[in-house]
Amino acid sequence: MSQRLRFHPAVASDLSEAADYYAQADPDLPRRLRADLRQSLDLVEAFPYLGGTIFEIYRHITLRRFPHLAVYRIKGDVVRVLAVVHTRRDPAWIQNTVRGRERSRAAQAATTVFPPELTMGDLS
């Protein structure tokens, strides 16, 4: 059964920060990052338990071509994507960020569609 993806609003800024960093090295890297993330999240949507467990109740999937994780939580038929972070981030920072985002009111208003950054036409 396919799950519905919901995104914490801060995921857009996570992605924007990473894309800005990669754009300094190569203007095409942000597009590749978004495509890689989209492919990973398509897998999570189809197979939510594919990702490994992190911090007991959360799961993560590592992007194939970039050193980033998408951290999410499964609740019923919804997968809540809470953060996209570099794999070298301090685990305590990741844990605090994810837990804080889940508790925030913004988590309640998470959108049910991919953020605009992931639906751009150049992802084909």
Fold and architecture overview:
Helix content is 41%, strand content 23%. It has 124 residues and is of the alpha+beta class. It has one domain (4-112): RelE-like (YaeB-like fold, 2-Layer Sandwich), CATH 3.30.2310. A hairpin with a 2-residue loop joins strand 4 (68-75) and strand 5 (78-86). Mean pLDDT is 86; it is low at 120-124.
Write a concise keyword list for the protein shown above.
23% strand; 124 residues; alpha+beta; 41% helix; YaeB-like fold; globular; five-stranded mixed beta sheet
Question: What does the radius of gyration come to?
Answer: 14 Å
Task: Indicate the CATH topology.
Answer: YaeB-like fold
Q: What spatial order of strands do you see in the largest sheet? A: 1-5-4-3-2
**Number of separate helices:** 4
CATH superfamily: RelE-like
CATH hierarchy, class? Alpha Beta
Order of helices and strands: EHHEEEEHH
In short:
The chain is α+β, with helices and mostly antiparallel strands. It contains four helices and five strands, in the order E-H-H-E-E-E-E-H-H. It is globular.
Question: What's the structural blueprint in terms of helices and strands?
Answer:
Layout: E1 4-7, H1 10-25, H2 29-46, E2 52-54, E3 58-62, E4 68-75, E5 78-86, H3 91-103, H4 105-108
